[in-house]
Amino acid sequence: MHDESSRGCQWDVVIVGASFAGAACALAARRAGLRVCVLERKRDPGMRLHTTGIIVGEAAEGTHLGQLPPALWRRVEHVRLYAPNLRSLALHSPGDYFLTTDTPNVMRWLADEMRTAGVGLRLMQSFTDARRERGGWQVEGLGRTRWLVGADGAKSRVAARAGLGRVRDFLYGVEHEYAGMQLDQSGALHCFLSRRLAPGYIGWAAQSPVGVQVGLAFRHRAARTGTPDIEGLLRRVGDRLGLPRHLPPTSVRAGLIPCGGPVAQIAGNGVILTGDAAGIVSPVTAGGIHSAWCHGEAVGNAIAAHILQGGPCPMQAAIAAAPRFRAKRALRWLFDHAQMDWPFNLLINTPPLRWAARQVYFHVG
User: Fold this and answer.
1) 256-314: pLDDT as tens digits
2) Any idea what DSSP says for residue 67?
3) Sign (positive/negative) of CA torsion 96, 102, 104, 107?
4) What's the pTM value of the predicted model, to 2 decimals?
5) Which helix (H) or strand (E) holds 253?
């Protein structure tokens, strides 16, 4: 169902960013039969990543990510939460789990999945500019599209160009990967609370398919300088994990992570944001893969239904599909303004803290 104003468009939808959200949107729109193009500035989708690549079981079972080749993931069914004094709490919920991944190769697999589906994936092509025209957008260096989707990260150029909402609240995270290393307790996701090392967030360690990943993040503020001290984290917890304290990383990932919830304006005239660009990330856990995938897929489906079947405006569908994170935004405020070490040291093995931790990690009472 094509209206007169959209004739001459080379694409039905152009997506900027081959992220999880971008791939979900592209695959959904392409499955419906749309002409889809994805712009990705990197020559290799597995380079310079900002994500830990830890996927919750719901995403593994309920999305296309369930088709990941077994060599690219490792199942983790337990969480061990450490107070600042390193007393710990073991958490488990039957049926709930996480997948740690070989993240660079997961992104390459997603790129191959898009190509196989018939998506026009343009690597080494950045989004530089676009102008609104009747019935679509003229994307510089590419051509005309009916819809433009920004899945290009927390500092979205699409958002800036289209005058949409901008992400303002961030965590700054760094993750080191140690190929070939083994944790003493490899079946758990280890999470460390420390106001000194991780103000406003946590440190973490997990066994991946290729080794061990250790990360640390803090609340990003203009007055806070420096980078997360992973070496200091390893000095403190390395013995507990079975890792050497002075361990050179095989690879390093770093970047800003949205933590303020969805941006105020996710969509405009013919343009929609998704994933990190839209702030579709949990304000507490910074987990974003599942929610980003679901939102990106909803956007792709809504655009397809609008174009092919005369369905409702996709902008409204994009707004409705964005999680609100109301309770987690309240917890984020508390973490930002009232984080102290002594309550965690005191309460680590008590029923109230166990209940709260299970809510955060497994969404159960």
Assistant:
1) 999 999 999 999 999 999 999 999 999 888 888 999 999 999 999 999 999 999 999 99
2) G
3) negative
4) 0.94
5) strand 251-258
